[in-house]
Amino acid sequence: MNEAKQQRRADAVRQQLTDALDASRIEIKDVTQRHRRHAEAKDGRAHFEVVVVSERFAALPTLRRHRLVYDALDQMMNTDIHSLSIKALTPGEDSDQ
């Protein structure tokens, strides 16, 4: 997959997470190349690792936090993203802030 398309996907992920979760910090790492030989990679969808920091995660267990991220990316999970590794934190849990 070309670099421009990968960047557009990452930008779309960033925008959707920012809009839906009012995130104060988002890190997105495209790790698609690690999986290029996997049979599932032939569909052209991306593999991402994301760190999302949002107050919306306060008092929520990990599973509910991840569900909010998946809900924010809704259609992209069907069309653009094959695999998503999520680290969902509140600002108080984020050591990078």
What general outline do the C-alpha atoms trace? globular
Query: Could you give the order of the helices and strands?
Result: HEEHHE
Strand percentage, roughly?
A: 15-25%
CATH-derived architecture: 2-Layer Sandwich
Please state the structural category: alpha+beta
Indicate the CATH topology.
GMP Synthetase, Chain A, domain 3
Protein described:
36% of the residues lie in helices and 24% in strands. By secondary structure, the protein is of the alpha+beta class. It has a single domain (3-25, 32-82), classed as 2-Layer Sandwich (GMP Synthetase, Chain A, domain 3). A three-stranded mixed β-sheet has the order 1-2-3.
Summarize the structure.
By secondary structure, this protein is an alpha+beta fold. It is built from three helices and three strands; from the N terminus they run αββααβ.
